Amino acid sequence: MVNKYSNMSKKPKILILVGGNIIKLDPFVAAAESMSVDLFVASFSDISYDNLVTSDGYSLNVRGEPLNTFELIYFRLVGNRVEEATLVANEAKKYKIPVVDALYSDSLLLPSSLAKSVEMAKLIDYKLPLPRTIYGNLASIIEKSRETFGIQFVIKSTTGKKSREVWSAQTEEQLNTLVDTLSQLEVKGMRFFTQEFIPGSQRIRVLVVGDEAVAAITRPTKWRKRFLPKNEAGNVIEGEKRALIPVPTEDAELAITSARAVGLNIAGVDILHDDTTNKAYILEVNAAPSWKAITKDTGMNIEKKILEYLISLL
């Protein structure tokens, strides 16, 4: 095979990624030193992105190096790092960067519905309104979040199990304790991202079926007591639990676009409005939403709605 770079002064820039310790890649580093190759080796745990500069969307980085600066990417060993491999494969496809082996470019490794890191990246790419988001290894996202948001921000696992894996500290002591706990989970394979804390007291769930926002409900948010004023008895006014009929136009349009962005035809989209500015933010897009509360509040037969949609596809 002829090396197309053999007569060129420019060195090919190649990235090799491994699941685990990069010491496994030392032989590649040694080989590259004797060749005209600009080699960068890293672990999948070094993958990160954020949307802090919102006008630019997001850029996937490997220890601060933009992924789109590489000319070829080799996955030496993926192991249990399928989530990060999916992020890299999606970014490589966007910039037409070859990935070895080819199967990583030609197949869907992990649908966005199973990894919130992939979901968030797609929503950012669509230029949809998200809270400012930082993804990467736990130590790096905590450090960057402290610098950007202060102490109060939200930490979420990328599995997003029914809002249970969501945390937010109010003091330095609480944050340090929380990080110690989450560090143990990270060792076991859990991944995290952080988001700015949005002072919204009501959370909206919009159910999207096809190109229609068929129903919506509102529920009080988890940390509303932090910022809402208290009455004379020292209590925060109870939040609302009700249907939104009709579905607010802005929320309907935002939910439909969000579902489309992540490739879902049937989805539950959670939206939060800032109490002060009323700006809307997408919190998440659920591929297998529960609609028990929607049925209760609206009286709508959701199963019938979905069947009508499925039949329309035939």
Q: How much of the polypeptide forms β-strand, as a percent range?
A: 15-25%
**Cα gyration radius (Å):** 22 Å
The helix/strand class is alpha+beta
How would you describe the shape? Answer: globular
CATH topology of the largest domain: D-amino Acid Aminotransferase, Chain A, domain 1
How confident is the prediction overall: mean pLDDT?
89
Tell me the distance between the termini.
Answer: 50 Å
CATH class of the largest domain: Alpha Beta
What's the β-strand tally?
Answer: 16
Integer tally of domains:
3
Largest sheet: 7 strands, antiparallel
Low-confidence stretches: 1-8
Layout of helices and strands:
Elements: E1 13-18, H1 26-33, E2 38-43, E3 47-50, E4 61-62, E5 65-66, E6 72-77, H2 82-94, E7 99-100, H3 103-106, H4 116-125, E8 133-136, H5 138-149, E9 153-157, E10 166-167, H6 172-187, E11 192-196, E12 202-209, E13 212-220, E14 242-243, H7 249-261, E15 266-273, E16 280-286, H8 292-298, H9 302-312
Parallel strand pairs: 1-2, 1-6, 6-7
Antiparallel strand pairs: 3-4, 3-8, 4-5, 8-11, 9-10, 9-11, 12-13, 12-15, 13-14, 15-16
Report on the architecture of this protein.
The protein has about 325 residues and is an alpha+beta fold. It folds into three domains: about 15-110, Rossmann fold (3-Layer(aba) Sandwich), CATH 3.40.50; about 135-195, Dna Ligase, domain 1, CATH 3.30.1490; about 200-310, ATP-grasp fold, B domain (D-amino Acid Aminotransferase, Chain A, domain 1), CATH 3.30.470.20. About 30% of the residues lie in helices and about 25% in strands. It contains nine helices and 16 strands. The protein has helices at about 25-35, 80-95, 105, 115-125, 140-150, 170-185, 250-260, 290-300, 300-310, and strands at about 15-20, 40-45, 45-50, 60, 65, 70-75, 100, 135, 155, 165, 190-195, 200-210, 210-220, 240-245, 265-275, 280-285. It has a seven-stranded antiparallel beta sheet with strand order 5-4-3-8-11-9-10, sandwiched between helices. The chain has a five-stranded antiparallel beta sheet with strand order 14-13-12-15-16. The protein is globular, with a radius of gyration of 22 Å. The protein starts with 12 loop residues before the first strand and ends with a helix. Mean pLDDT is about 90; it is low at about 1-10.
